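Complex 160.
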Amino acid sequence: MTELDPLIVAQVDALLDGEHNPITALANASALLYNTMPDLNWAGFYLYSPTNASLDLGPFQGQVACMHIQPGQGVVGTSFAQQQALRVPNVHEFAGHIACDAASNSEVVVPLTVGTTTVGVLDIDSPRLDRFSENDLKTLQAFAQALAKHLDADAIRKVY
Ligand code: SME
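Predicted structure with methionine sulfoxide bound:
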C-alpha cells in the first residue's frame, strides 16, 4: 500500500497561502486529501459548536454524512474529547462507531488545534480494512498542524 507522501504538508501550506476564510480553507484541504489518497470514501471536518455543544459537519468530500456528533461519541467525538488522534483499522470493532456510510471499514481522526484551542477534527474514512498506516497518521497530524496555521479560531466561531 502506498503511504501518504509527506509532501502534502507543504502542499496544503502553499495552497492556503493568504487564505482568511476558514470554510474556503477547509473545503480545499478536504479536496486535496480526498484526491491525493487512494481508496477513500470520505474526507472532511467536524467543527465544534459551543452553541450546540456538538461537533457539526464541516467542509468535506464524499457521501452525505452525519451532521451533529456529541463529544465522546463515535471515533470523531472520542478523538475530540480526548484531544488525541485515533487510527481505527476496523471500525466495526470500535465500540460506539457511528456508521454514517455503511461502506466505511477503517478510519482515522486527528484533532484540529488552532493555537491552544481544539476547534474540531479531521476525519478520513476508507472502505478498505486497515487502510491507514502509522506513518499516514503522522503525516496527517503534520497536515492538520500546517492547515491550522491558516485558520483563525474566532472566524470559525462566527460560523459554528
Ligand atoms: N464514523 C464516524 C462518524 C463520521 S463519518 O465517518 C463521516 C464516527 O464514528 O465518529
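DSSP finds five helices and six strands in the chain.
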